[in-house]
Predict the 3D structure of the following.
Amino acid sequence: MALAFYSATKILLLDEPTTNLDKRGSQWFYYEMEKTESDRLLILASNQENEYNKCDSVLDLSDFKDY
C-alpha cells in the first residue's frame, strides 16, 4: 500500500485497504489518505464504513440493484 500512496499517480484505486492492518497500520492509512486527497483522485471500494466515512462522495452500488 505504501507503494501505491508514494507513487506519482493521478488516480489511486484501493479495495478494502485496512482489512489486514492492525490499529497502527489503519492509523497510518487514514493519515496517508488525508495527505493525498488534494493531489489525486482516490477511489476506495469497501464494505467497511469506517474506511469510507471520510470520503467526500460515496456511491452505494446497492442503490442501483434491481430486486
Q: What stands out?
A: The CA atoms of residues 47 and 62 lie 11 Å apart. The longest strand covers residues 11-15. The beta strands are 11-15, 41-45.
